[in-house]
Amino acid sequence: MEESGVSRSVINTSSNPYLEFDHISTVSSIPCDKQFIKSAAGLLACAEVVLGLLVCGLIAGTDYFRMSPFGWVMFVAVFYWVLTLFLLILFLTQAHSRIPQVPWSTVVLIFNTSATLLYLVAAVVEATLVDHGVKGHHNYNSWAASTFFAFLVSLCYGGSAYLGLKAWRDRGEE
Q1: CA-CA distance, 125 to 78, in Å (whole number)?
Q2: Half-sphere exposure in the Cβ direction for 119 (13 Å, CA)
Q3: What pTM was estimated for this model as a whole?
Q4: How far is it, in rounded angstroms, from Cα 2 to Cα 112?
Q5: Which long-range contacts (CB under 8 A, 24 or more apart) does 68-74 make?
Q6: Is the pLDDT at 174 greater than 60, yes or no?
Q7: What is the pLDDT confidence band of residue 149, given thresholds at 50, 70 and 90?
Q8: What are phi and psi of 23, to 5 degrees?
Q9: Distances (CA, A) of 84 to 46, 117, 135
Q10: Ramachandran assignment for 98, one of left (phi > 0), alpha (psi -120 to 50 degrees), beta (any other)
Q11: Chain segment 13-60, per-residue pLDDT in tens
């Protein structure tokens, strides 16, 4: 049955793609290695991300730019925070297994060893600068807390370097 000269528009809200959620992928479709996050390496990586963010945040909230050595500390903290977060996501999503040409145990060993050394240097530099703040003031308290967390994160990277060394040795024996 055709109606002459009359056109009808029918809006069906149930077929509106913005109201349907079938096209949205869920987080559960992303592969996630739950065993890695429960392992010592995964727990240390999570601790490194959290502690590194604390180091960055505590320094960034102060007048750190007035003393140039704090620029070094911020560089180390931000640089290794970004790379650690990248590696954590890489290992959580098992994306590293899609690139078998990369010797991941060697990469992780070198990364964590360099992070340990540079974070330790940054923590010592920061510890020597804390007394330039006035006790009880915001800068002093933030720098002291950041120094504590910088030493903690360097210990975490040291633990990760040790685990990386063990993995590297095990890989070499195979």
Answers
A1: 16
A2: 31
A3: 0.78
A4: 74
A5: 69/125, 69/126, 69/129, 70/126, 70/129, 72/122, 72/125, 73/122, 73/125, 73/126, 73/146, 73/150
A6: no
A7: very high
A8: -85, -10
A9: 9, 15, 33
A10: alpha
A11: 444 444 443 433 445 566 787 888 899 999 999 999 999 999 999 999
